[in-house]
Structure formats: C-alpha cells, structure tokens
Amino acid sequence: MLDSTTTSSSTTVDLSSYLPSMEESLQEWLSRNIPESNSPSPLYSMLHEACPCCGKHDCEHMETLYNTMRKLESDTRLAAEIGQGLLHKHEVLVAETNQTKDILEEQLNEFRERVSTLEMLLALQETSLDFEKANERCIEIGNELKNKTKEVEKLRIFKFMVRQADYREDMLRSQLEDTNQELAISRKNELMLESKYKKLKARYGKCLPRPS
User: Fold this and answer.
1) Residue pair 201/118 in contact by the 8 Å Cβ criterion
2) Are residues 27 and 110 in the same domain?
C-alpha cells in the first residue's frame, strides 16, 4: 500500500512539471476568447446586421446592446490583464520567498554547525582545565611527599636522642601513608583524565588544545 502511494505521488509530481502555469493558462484563454485591442471585435459585425426584433439596420436598441457588450468585452479584457499581472507578481513573489527560505535554511544550518563546534570546543577546554588542575595537584602532592620524606629521614637520624622522636616518626609515617593514598588517588584521577584527553584528541584531532 505504501509503495503504490509513493508511486502515485511521484507520478503526480512528474506530470505537474508538464502542466502550464496559471499565467500561461490565462494568456491562452485571453487569446482564444478576447481579441487584441487593435484587432476588430467579433461584435463589430452586429452593426451591419438587421435587428432580429424589428428588422432595421439602424435600430436604437441594437446599437445600445452593441455598446453594452463592447464595454463588457473591454472590461473583461482589462480584468483579465490585471489578473495576469497579479498572477505574474504572485509567481515572482513565490519564487523570491522560496529563494529567501533556502537562504535562511542554509544560514540556520551554518549556525547549528557553529553552535555544535563551539560546544565541542567548550567541552575540550573544560577537560583541558581539569587536566591542568590535576597535574598541578600532583606536583603539590609530590612536593609534600618530598618534604615529608626529608623529615622522616631527619627523625631517623636523631631518634636515639629522645623518646619523643619515635612518636613523631610514627605520626609522620601515618601522614606519609595518608599522603601516599592521596597521591595514588590523584594519580589515578590523572590517568583517567589523560585517557579521556587521548580519546577526545583521537576523536576531534587538531581542535583539541595542547595541555601544558
């Protein structure tokens, strides 16, 4: 059922391209029914015919009828010419409207592509910023780890001097373990962000800014 409907619609579209426009149809009707303004009117022969009512050639009623029909013929021609002009203007307006519509649709598609590109760049920028923050945090934690390690080494050297050094060493070791855990978590986050960055880079190519 769907195929037959589609075929019928396609046939209608193809046939419509061979049909005359409204302006052409009106012009054909004018040439067939209304003579040109400089050509003799078919009504002119009525003046040389005898009146069918009284049989006279100079019948007043016959002349009045002729003038009335002549005026109607002139008014009809004028109305048809005006209609033809309006139809032509209408077709021009429709063509201009379709052209404007195509231009606006093309501009709309361009704007949509630009919005999509900007959204992609924004996502890449946010990911890059997160990567930079994670990298900075890893550096800070690394520096903290180095400082803690130095303190532990110093306490090992001087632990024989005071008993409190043992407690201090245990406390620093606990802090070191916490720091190592935090570093491990940070490195894990860094690896996740780096993996995400590589995937985005492989997908979007040169659009991705180079991380610092």
Assistant:
1) no
2) yes
